[in-house]
Amino acid sequence: MQLTSVLTTIGLLAAEVAAHGAVTSYVIAGKTYQGYNGFAPSSTPVIQRQWPDYNPTLSASDSKIRCNGGTSAALSAQVKPGDSIQAIWQQWTHSQGPVMVWMYRCSGDFSSCDGSGTNWFKIDQSGFSGDGVNVFLDSETPSGWGIAKLVGGNKGFTSTIPNLAPGNYLIRHELIALHQANAPQWYAECAQLQVTGSGTALPSGSYLTSIPGYAKQSDSNISFNINNHSLPQKYTMPGPPVFRG
Ligand SMILES: *[C@@H]1O[C@H](CO)[C@@H](O)[C@H](O)[C@H]1NC(C)=O
Ligand SMILES: *[C@@H]1O[C@H](CO)[C@@H](O)[C@H](O)[C@H]1NC(C)=O
């Protein structure tokens, strides 16, 4: 084999192993907002927290799982309870894994809102609905997983803003790519939302958790042999229940 073809093969293998991708835009109440593109930074300010790369985060305790390392954005989008928010991934490769959508209430300005503490709650999620007969946990096509909705590129995941009290919030779209046995990969990006309107709800108690912290690497819904069809072909979502407002 020539060196170039060896390198090409290695490149293809690497692409095969890691899914690589990020939320690249949002459609909020019908209006499109560009996200950040870490490899071709635009001078245009965006609502998304700017991430350094779209490599997977490999550990449940790595602080990069919070917002893929993103800490600030120049803009925010206004939303009100009942509005739809669609996150769009320019490309996505593998079908296996859950999608979770989280929010976090900032105590003040976005510039000082770092997503720390036990303040995160879920507003939406999509797990596994395969039957273990024709559609197993590791089936690529047809897939029973929420993440499969994104495969092929320019696909979105749409959620509804719950009846939340007005304020500044982060919204976090998280994919846990599970296609490699016992080697979960996290992909998560955050954007800044200013919730307006007259909502009153503030999630508390069992709806709230910290990120990182909502799951352990050793949890059986985080690290498991996805290729073992002798295991029960079902999936329990990690983290707290979804807050519907
Ligand atoms: C698959 O799961 C079954 C049931 O837990 C277990 O007995 C078996 O050892 C596993 N096989 C592999 C290859 O992990
Ligand atoms: C799933 O993960 C959560 C932690 O987020 C854990 O409490 C729960 O026991 C796990 N469920 C299973 C079936 O492993």
Automatic annotation (TrEMBL):
Source organism superkingdom: Eukaryota
GO BP field: cellulose catabolic process
Alphabetic keyword roster: Carbohydrate metabolism, Cellulose degradation, Disulfide bond, Hydrolase, Polysaccharide degradation, Secreted, Signal
Cofactor dependence: Cu(2+)
Catalyzed reactions: [(1->4)-beta-D-glucosyl]n+m + reduced acceptor + O2 = 4-dehydro-beta-D-glucosyl-[(1->4)-beta-D-glucosyl]n-1 + [(1->4)-beta-D-glucosyl]m + acceptor + H2O
Record's GO cellular component terms: extracellular region
Annotated ranges, domain Auxiliary Activity family 9 catalytic: 20-235
Compartment(s) where it occurs, according to its Swiss-Prot or TrEMBL record: Secreted
A Pfam family recorded for this sequence: AA9
InterPro entries: AA9, AA9_LPMO
Keyword Secreted: yes
Entry similarity comment: Belongs to the polysaccharide monooxygenase AA9 family.
Protein name as it appears in the record: lytic cellulose monooxygenase (C4-dehydrogenating)
Organism, scientific name: Microdochium trichocladiopsis
